[in-house]
Design a protein that fits this description.
about 140 residues, alpha/beta, Nucleotidyltransferase, domain 5, 3 helices, elongated
Amino acid sequence: MPLKTHQDDQPTLNLTPMIDIVFLLIIFFMVGTKFTELEHKIGLQVPEVTDHDALTDAPERKVVNVHADGAIMLDHRHVSVAELTQQLAAANEQYSKLGVLIRGDRAASHGTMTTVYNACTEAGVSKLGISVKVLPPQ
């Protein structure tokens, strides 16, 4: 068996192909962005649509707070029953699946709560929720 009398040179890493590929990618993306800029300058008459319904669902449900003194708040603003009905109807036109959560104070009168329920029904809201506190079992 022949013995090695000299040491082999360490292999060198040739970076030229990698640098070529990086430059090609840079040029490709630079040219690609120029095409998108030119596309925006083309004089086209795009179709128009009416503002009828929202394209997405309601981001979150509306919250109606009924205080013990009979004050009604919709999303942290004091409103009357007529304003509540009007604002919920407008929101229901935009988002057909509008949800409303009614949070009534324990001391609020049943008549005030019924008025709020009727206002939601008149506005066309079909998803009503009532907030309650669940007590632990004894």
